[in-house]
Design a protein that fits this description.
Elements (H helix, E strand, L loop, with lengths): L10 H12 L13 H11 L3 H5 L1 H13 L1 H7 L7 H11 L4 E3 L4 E4 L11 E4 L5
Antiparallel strand pairs: 1-2, 2-3
Length: 129
């Protein structure tokens, strides 16, 4: 069976899915606390592409294209870069913002829709060594 249940997904098809994901609510701060895989899964399901979620090869291809296109999406402005200030504002609303690592004194900032939900960016907190 092909990735899309009878049709072969081309590279342009996969890129189009990735860019539509970036423009969706699942790439925003509301879902920043979710791992990127969960956000992609929810996006595909919400937009009638559940068959891609159920096909491991197709899902891997979609996820690869999402992660590959994060940089260009950030540079083009399709994705907004989350800063510590916006993360703090967001955390004040729902408690999901920066987390402090007590041992290292590093604040963990998650950049939405960049795949960085699994790889936190650490920044030194001012006034700490």
């Amino acid at each position: 069976m092909s990735p899309s249940g009878g049709q072969h997904l081309t590279e342009p098809d996969l890129d189009a899915i990735a860019w539509r994901f970036f423009a969706s609510e699942f790439a925003g701060l509301s879902y920043a606390g979710w791992p990127v895989e969960r956000r992609v899964d929810a996006y595909l399901t919400r937009h009638g592409m559940r068959r891609l979620v159920n096909d491991g090869d197709a899902y891997d291809a979609v996820l690869k294209h999402v992660l590959t296109n994060v940089g260009p999406a950030l540079r083009s402005g399709v994705l907004a870069n989350t800063t510590s200030l916006t993360a703090r504002r967001h955390s004040a609303q729902d408690g999901s913002g920066p987390r402090m690592d007590a041992e290292s004194g590093l604040a963990t900032i998650y950049v939405h829709a960049s795949g960085a939900g699994d790889r936190p960016h650490a920044r030194r907190r001012s006034g700490r060594p």
